[in-house]
Every structure is written in structure tokens, then in C-alpha cells.
Amino acid sequence: MANTDDFGFGTQIRKSPYFDATVRWGARAFSVYNHMYIPRDFGDPEANFWNLVNDAILCDVAVERQVEITGPDAAQFVQTLTPRDLSTLAVGQCKYILITNADGGILNDPILLRLADNHFWISLADSDILLWAQGVAVHSDLDVTIREPDVSPLQLQGPKSGDVMKALFGESILDLRYYWLRKVELDGIPLIVSRTGWSSELGYEIYLQDGSRGDELWEKIMTAGAPFNLKPGHTSSIRRIEGGMLSYHADANINTNPYELGLDRLVDVDMDAEFIGKSALRKIRDTGVLRKQVGLIIDCPPLKGPNTTFWAITKNGETVGKVTSAVYSPRLQKNISLAMVSKDCAEIETAVEVHTSVGSVAARVVEKPFYDPKKNIASAS
User: Fold this and answer.
1) CB 113 within 8 A of CB 120
2) Do the Cβ atoms of 152 and 214 come closer than 8 Å?
3) Which 8-state DSSP code applies to residue 176?
4) 8 A C-beta contact, residue 310 and residue 323
């Protein structure tokens, strides 16, 4: 078993409340996300994938830091950050949102949780939205308090995750609807649970509100999950690419706008409420985009792992885009990828060449998501 001191970049990189537990349960390597360690290796990534899609895995995602927004004007302030219309967001509900800058560029694609009328959490992908939100608030003339609370999520994902949740919290937890949340306790440990996750499978996120009890919580969940073959794991690149889920900094960044990603449903430039980037996004909507995100099937032997650089895409010798995320899917028995290409090359079945780390190979544009396109697995009651 590895010693927790075997991993280290210095004290500037924070450890999660589950760090020691993940090492104890077999974490072999970590990367850095939101200035924190995140486990990336519990052994064979294909085994992790099959554990996820057949049974359940528990993932330390405390790196999904929360930006907490409270105060009399919290609801109005949160709306200024996102182009998604939040007027129907109920207390106890979650929504997938985009946070955009004045040019319509995407700064983050978090989950927004509404805990009370004027109490919100923004559950972050990898970027410093706490600083952005605090900066926006300075001259907003809105009465809000913005901070990072002591909140550390876990993801419990997979078809048997409901069984594990029932063992932990009782039958009533199964009534929790897709993209809704509930306040619960587990042997006095204060938690928020939501029916969300980054896997496109049935899943839950468990938000610990007392970091001192992280090790205890991890062990309680693993014990409850043992009869259901629960395994420690890490977020699966294979499954999230199958599901067409974005990884911020890979598939989107500050220079990407929602329309390029086909996320028009998350933008309402005609609503009365003002938000940052409204005029820019209205112009983009009206003039159209020059590039689009597509799915690609890459015709070569199985990739050995996810790409670690952006691979150029060419057609007739001209560069037309880049592969942003690629992996071999053992279920589909194909190399699948998300890519950004010029709009002229975005039609289904368009043939292109991808310049991989092992040479140039043929590829074709296909529909995405690659598996369960309507998210029936994750959303089914």
C-alpha cells in the first residue's frame, strides 16, 4: 500500500477529506484539478469502466469545489452569471448551466444547486469561478455573500448506486428525482445528496459538509456497498466520452461559445433578465458559428488511453479542426472522440484524417452522444 506522503507537489495543492482513504483503497496516481489532488488511477481503466456500467463505483470528486452564494439578492446575482433562464429553478432543484464572459466565451459548465430561496451552490468544473463571482459582485450593487464553504462531494455512480443509497439512507431516498437534491444525515454526518453525476449512468453526488468526517464517510459507503460489488474508482473518460459529456479545458474553454457545442438549450438571449455575455451571444446566435463540436469514429487499432494532446484534423490536406477527447470504448469496440471542426466538415459521415500520436488515420463524423443519446439510463426513475 502506498504511503500518503508518496504523492506531493507541496502544500499549495490541497488534499481532499477522502485523500487518505483513496490511497488506502488503492489510488495509484493523482492529477491536479481546482488546485487539489484528484485520484486518476485505481488500476486498469477498462476495469473501472466495467465496474461503473455493471455495478457501482465511488469517486473522490472533492475537487468539484462549491461557490456558495447567499444574501437577499442571491437569485438575481446567480442569473447574471449564466445565460440559462433560472426563473423556474425551484428550491431543491439542480440545473446544468454555463457561465459565460462578456464575449460569450465559456468560463465553466457547473451544476447549480438551489438549497433555499437565497442559497445557491455552484459545483465547479476546473476553473477559478470563486474569484470571477467575487469580482463580478464588487460593482454589482447586489447584496450577496460569496465564499467557498466546507463542502466536499463524492460521486456514487452506476446501476447499483440506488441499492447502495437505499442501504445507507433507507427506501425513501429512491424517491429523489433526477437533478434534485435532499438534505440528509448519516450517523450524524451532515450531507446534501443530489441525483447527478459525471458518468451518464444512474448516479448520486454526496456532498459532505464537515471535512473532518471524510474518512469516516468513505468507509461507511464502501461498507454499505460491499454486497453490491461497489468498487473505489475514478471518473471514467470512456463513459463520459460515450455520453458526450464535456471536460472543461479539453472540450471547451474561454474561447468556446455555447452554440459551437450545440448547447443552445442552455442559452436564452430573449429573456428579460440580464446576464454577462447577453449581447455577444445574441450576435453569435444571429450570425452563426464557424465551427461545431462533433463526434468522430477514428479508424485505427484500439487507442492505449485518452489523448494527452489535441490531435489535428485535416481534409484534403487542410487543417479543419482538432480532436479534443479520444478514447477506445471496449463496449462499442471503437475509438470514439469529441472534436471541434469547421462547420463545413460537421455533416454526419464526413470523412477526415486525424493526426494521432502514432500517425495519420482515417475518421468520420458521427452522431453524439455515442451511447444512450437521450440519457435514459441516468434519468430513468
Assistant:
1) yes
2) yes
3) P
4) yes
Indicate the SS3 state at residue 142. coil
CA gap 266, 97 in Å, rounded:
6
pLDDT of 1 strictly over 70:
no
**CA pair distance 366, 312, nearest whole angstrom:** 18
Buried b (16+ CB within 10 A) or exposed e, 345-369: bbeeebebbbebeeeeeebebbebb
Q: What is the pLDDT of residues 66-110, one digit of tens each?
A: 999 999 999 999 999 999 999 999 999 999 999 999 999 999 999
Specify whether the CB–CB gap between 196 and 205 falls below 8 A.
Answer: yes
Amino acid, single-letter form, for residue 291: R
What would the grid cell of residue 360 be? Answer: 495519420
Cβ pair 36, 15 in contact under 8 A: yes
Which residue has cell 500518503? 4
- Using CA atoms, how far residue 139 sits from 64, 77, 122, 276, 350, in Å, is 27, 12, 20, 13, 48
State the pTM of this model.
0.96
Structural contact between residues 42 and 65, judged by C-beta atoms closer than 8 angstroms: no
* pLDDT, mean of residues 111-128: 98
Q: Note the maximum CA span of the chain.
A: 63
Output phi, psi for 291, to 5 deg. Answer: -145, 160
Tell me the three cell numbers of residue 127: 476553473
- List domains and CATH numbers for the chain: 4-65+151-241 (3.30.1360.120), 66-149+257-283 (3.30.70.1400)
